[in-house]
């Protein structure tokens, strides 16, 4: 065994011998190594892993249970589906990283090509949906929850400003920019849908908002400078994403000292039809999950604001978090 590997594995001596053996045994099987490699890229459902691995769902589920019991991965239900991700435990992640690091470079190459196919199918379905609904986007949103109530709560949570720079990630029809752009010296809206951006351009112009830049951009890799915005908004975007935690991390990266990140999305629900009818990947988010991501991003969360649900039973939550000035200085 090479020295660097021996040293890395020695780090796990703070686990008990039984725990270490159990974890290594759980990872020590070809399909399970393939699964760990896939989950290192993003969280996945059993159905998606079954497709990528070309194995039955019951067989994949057995592997997942063994690794979950060993603490290598985490299982979390989302409506009728179940997703899996790598453990957030630091010791388990170091062990997984070491195991994956010593695999041959081309190991799992075919799996990751099939993962790219799964991602492409998701993106095409979402893009088709957004292009179709873009002209009626705000009307569709009103079917879920009262936008006037959300916006009133947002105005109160965000405050009167003024702001140096507002960044709206997944700007859609540009509604957040029409609300808060006038309070900012400069605003930026990013979206992957050109049709949405065209509608946003029309809306911000009608609203008389100046100094607005609308960009075709990826919420996971915005290419915006770190600590460049004192207000970052992520409005009804996370439930469409394959890796919402990564999107929150990127949004948090943009928040300047003393600045604020605001996330608006659904609380957990069981409206399964949202997946097919509206391309929702996640059926809402728990406070603990969002707050954990905010803390990971170096932000200090405030108490979430849960808005009364409408007749259909959906509840919208507003999560806010700040980057304290001293946090940046000591980072």
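^ structure tokens above, recovered residues below v
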């Amino acid at each position: 065994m090479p020295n660097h590997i021996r040293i890395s594995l020695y780090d796990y001596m703070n686990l008990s011998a039984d725990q270490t053996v159990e974890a290594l045994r759980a990872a020590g099987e070809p399909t399970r190594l393939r699964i760990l490699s896939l989950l290192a890229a993003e969280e996945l459902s059993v159905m998606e892993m079954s497709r990528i691995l070309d194995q039955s769902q019951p067989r994949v589920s057995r592997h997942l249970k063994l690794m979950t019991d060993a603490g290598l991965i985490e299982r979390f239900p989302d409506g009728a589906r179940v997703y899996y991700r790598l453990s957030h435990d630091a010791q388990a992640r170091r062990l997984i990283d070491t195991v994956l690091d010593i695999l041959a470079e081309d190991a799992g190459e075919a799996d990751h090509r099939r993962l790219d196919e799964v991602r492409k199918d998701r993106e095409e379905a979402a893009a088709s949906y957004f292009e179709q609904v873009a002209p009626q986007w705000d009307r569709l949103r009103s079917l879920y929850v009262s936008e006037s109530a959300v916006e009133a709560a947002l105005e109160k949570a965000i405050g009167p400003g003024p702001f140096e720079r507002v960044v709206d990630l997944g700007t859609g029809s540009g509604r957040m920019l029409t609300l808060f752009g006038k309070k900012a010296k400069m605003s930026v809206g990013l979206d992957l849908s050109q049709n949405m951006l065209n509608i946003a351009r029309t809306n911000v112009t009608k609203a008389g908002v100046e100094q607005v830049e609308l960009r075709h951009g990826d919420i996971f890799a915005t290419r915006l400078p770190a600590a460049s915005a004192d207000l970052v908004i992520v409005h009804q975007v996370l439930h469409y994403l394959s890796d919402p935690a990564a999107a929150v991390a990127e949004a948090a990266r943009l928040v300047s000292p003393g600045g604020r990140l605001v996330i608006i999305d659904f609380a957990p629900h069981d409206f399964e039809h949202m997946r097919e009818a509206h391309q929702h990947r996640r059926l809402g988010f728990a406070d603990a999950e969002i707050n954990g991501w905010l803390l990971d991003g170096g932000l200090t969360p405030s108490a979430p604001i849960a808005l009364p649900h409408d007749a259909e039973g959906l509840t919208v939550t507003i999560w806010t978090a700040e980057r304290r000035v001293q946090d940046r200085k000591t980072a």
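The mean pLDDT is 83.
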